[in-house]
Specification:
It is built from six helices and nine strands. It is α/β, with parallel strands linked by helices and about 200 residues long.
């Protein structure tokens, strides 16, 4: 929770993994051993999404750290990485009682059948576009694009980003260091994007 709270306090959006665990939606990348009936002495229990976000948002909106929250047009995106199927309705329920007006959220990385169900539930979704996923699925229905590159050099250029923006899509570019690329390579990508003037509304990092 501390990391999420710090991000919100400083006006940074974030990405977090969400899955189901014993009837709740929790923040966790991997399944808990207890989901498979395995007992581990020092295993930590996954934390419920609603509890974490409620605490983190409450902390971010109070005290000296809250100056950014007074800016009416500032929005802090929350990217929810879906790690298990069948939890769309559970996510809606977990978030419906939290004041997330300044924290617009979207879901991504779910299976294609799940993506269809999320769209039917009116959940904002981002579709993936990468050197492997060359044709973004359900592009017209998606709110935005999760732009990624598993190879180097990155396959996309600023023209690709501009085209997505021109279609009215939000664009979230995955930073290359997540795939093990050097700081110099990462800087070259961000420098190119920065110099092109793409840092504007609709563009996410």
């Amino acid at each position: 929770m501390a990391a999420i709270s710090r991000a919100f306090c400083h006006g940074y959006g974030l990405e977090t993994d969400v899955r189901d665990h014993q009837g709740d939606v929790v923040i966790s990348h991997d399944p808990s051993p207890s989901d498979y009936g395995v007992k581990m002495k020092h295993a930590s229990s996954p934390v419920e999404v609603e509890w974490v976000l409620r605490k983190a948002i409450s902390h971010a909106l109070i005290g000296d750290q809250a100056e950014w929250a007074k800016k009416p047009n500032l929005k802090i995106p929350l990217a929810i990485n879906i790690k298990s199927d069948g939890i769309g309705s559970m996510i809606i329920k977990a978030l419906e009682n939290i004041d997330i007006g300044k924290f617009p959220w979207f879901a991504f990385d779910m299976s294609v059948p799940e993506m269809v169900s999320y769209i039917k539930l009116s959940i904002p979704v981002f579709t993936r576009h990468s050197d492997i996923e060359k044709f973004p699925v359900l592009y017209d229905q998606a709110h935005g694009v999760w732009l990624d590159s598993f190879s180097w050099p990155v396959w996309y250029d600023n023209k690709d980003i501009k085209e997505h923006l021109a279609y009215g899509k939000y664009v979230c570019v995955v930073s290359p260091e997540l795939h093990g690329h050097s700081a110099e390579k990462v800087e070259s990508v961000w420098r190119s994007i920065h110099d092109s003037g793409l840092f504007r509304r609709g563009f996410l990092l």
